[in-house]
Amino acid sequence: MDEALHIASLVVHARPELLEAVKANLRLLDHLELHRQSAAGKLVVVLEASDEQQILQRIEQINSLPGVLNAALIYHELLAPEGDSP
After folding, report:
1. Quaternary form (predicted)?
2. I need a surface site. Which of 47, 49, 65, 66 has the fewest CB within 10 A?
3. What is the pLDDT of residues 20-79, one digit of tens each?
4. How many CB atoms lie within 10 A of CB 48?
């Protein structure tokens, strides 16, 4: 690995009646995976980014999608490049 990699997990809460549309819009975003969902409109999403700013921008982008009520960061890990470990 040549550069740092940030892994972030989010819970996205969407209006249940718009869940399929929200999932379709999320699938259009790069470096994002959908992992779990509930009928209540909650989704677990994992992001990969090169820095924290990209994560914050993606959260803002997700929050602005039609049907999304809230996207909240629940986990963040920084994977350092090889040779940079403590």
Report:
1. Interacts with the cytoplasmic NapA precursor.
2. 66
3. 999 999 999 999 999 999 999 999 999 999 999 999 999 999 999 999 999 999 999 999
4. 16
What CATH number corresponds to the domain at position 55?
3.30.70.920
Structure tokens, 77 = 């890990």
78 domain residue, yes or no: no
Residue 28 lies in a domain: yes
The whole-angstrom separation of Cα 8 and Cα 19 is 21
Confidence label for 85 from pLDDT (cuts 50, 70 and 90): low
d(CA 66, CA 32): 18
Identify the domain containing residue 54 by its residue range.
5-72
Does residue 85 form part of some domain? no
| Number of domains the chain contains | 1
Query: What are the helix and strand counts (H, E) for the chain?
Result: 2, 4
Kindly state whether residue 38 falls inside one of the protein's structural domains: yes
